[in-house]
Amino acid sequence: MDSVSTSEPAGPAPSAESLLRATPPHELVATAGRLLAERVGAEDVTVLLADYGLRVLQPVTHLPHTDDPIPVHKGPAGRAFLSQTPVVEITSVSSPTQTVHLPLSVRGDRHGVLSVRLPSGATDTTTVLQLADFATALAHEVITAGRDTDLYLQARRTRRLTLAAEMQWQLLPGRGCARREYVIGAHLEPAYTIGGDNFDWSTDADHLTLTVTDGMGQGIDASLLTSLAVGALRNARRAGIGLVDQACLADQALFAQYGGKKYASTLLLKFDLASGTVRAVDAGSPQLYRQRDDTIEQIELEAQLPLGMFEETPYEEQVFHVEPGDRLIVLSTGVHGALSGDGGTFAERALRQTLGATREEPPHEAARAMVDGLFEHFGSRELAADASVVCLDWNGRADAGHAEVC
């Protein structure tokens, strides 16, 4: 009697996402190169990560050595990063090849670029779309790998971070977030020596909470103060209590630690995603501006005491509304209060001009350009104080459906 084969038919090949997830954290770039060589005939694969100042794209290689950085605002890789769309570059004439540059982004937070060199003619639409999906999967794995290896955080640095800056960057949720109702872009300077400025956000099915905090002082003292303030605000928010009580509990935490000798200026905003109603607590000095069509106005909120200045400070909530197409800009004191050489503040002299000039830019670039305008106003890249800008474009919700959460 003939034997009958009981072997099972081979299953489908593992997906690129599953193979990336199974890769040791420090080997993601090598694995990406191997997978793209096998699947699309890639001849070379490079991962470029944006540095902390968003000035250059740094190749991820064997540290501490790295290849030459690429300016963010020059060349096809920079265009892919800024536009957040794939860019195809013809890289050789004698031996025809093409390089596809694809943004590495996670839910609206820009991290860098994946550059893939392919044989000429291999960059059809289907292949570019496949590469874009691969780049998104790789970006998620790079961020996840940051929990277990320093490789990608080190690769982003053009120089050493101060200890205070290290603490602040680890405290941030990211530098951007996007879903259907809004897009957020934010920027901090001086990127490698930042001390007390912070921004934070959290979103759920129906709300977005956004805070901008400016801890007094400089260096480690400011960083420790801000870390306590942000931790207290997060703890209160995650307990499910309202915006006023979040401010009150953070105020109590800071006063208990510092006895009123140190405090943190904070703006708290909570957006209703369906209606555009915004609840606000202004506990200090960050300023809020709204661009609606061609009109730029400061949203005047009742200035209340900074967190931690006095024991059991009472806070009150105010309400305003945003409409689809609105842009909100939050500026820390280091931006709106920065002085030029002749003593004029940025808010008095250059703010509205800079806001108008950046209106058509996406929020990420508008926030960065605002800080560039601040450098020009200040007359130096060595700022006297930390500077943070958060730019939010409001799209609103056209229906009651649910959107992708950051």
Describe the protein's architecture and organization.
- The chain has 406 residues and is of the alpha+beta class.
- It is 32% helix and 27% strand.
- It contains 12 helices and 17 strands.
- The strands form 3 sheets. Strands 3-2-1-6-5-4 form a 6-stranded antiparallel β-sheet. It has a 6-stranded antiparallel β-sheet with strand order 7-8-17-16-13-14. Strands 9-10-11-12-15 form a 5-stranded antiparallel β-sheet.
- A hairpin with a 4-residue loop joins β4 and β5.
- α6 runs parallel beside α7 and α7 runs antiparallel to α8.
Content-based structural category: alpha+beta
Q: What's the helix-strand series?
A: HHEEEHEEEHHHEEEEHHEEEEEEHHHHE
Number of strands: 17
How does the overall form come out from the CA principal axes? Answer: globular
Uncertain runs: 1-5
Main attributes?
406 residues, alpha+beta, six-stranded antiparallel β-sheet, disordered N terminus, 12 helices
Task: Offer a concise description of the structure.
The protein has 12 helices and 17 strands.
Secondary structure topology:
Blueprint: H1 16-21, H2 28-40, E1 44-50, E2 56-59, E3 70-71, H3 75-83, E4 87-92, E5 97-106, E6 109-119, H4 125-145, H5 151-155, H6 163-171, E7 176-179, E8 182-189, E9 197-203, E10 207-215, H7 219-238, H8 243-258, E11 264-272, E12 277-283, E13 287-292, E14 295-298, E15 318-321, E16 327-331, H9 333-336, H10 346-349, H11 351-357, H12 363-378, E17 387-394
Antiparallel strand pairs: 1-2, 1-6, 2-3, 4-5, 5-6, 7-8, 8-17, 9-10, 10-11, 11-12, 12-15, 13-14, 13-16, 16-17
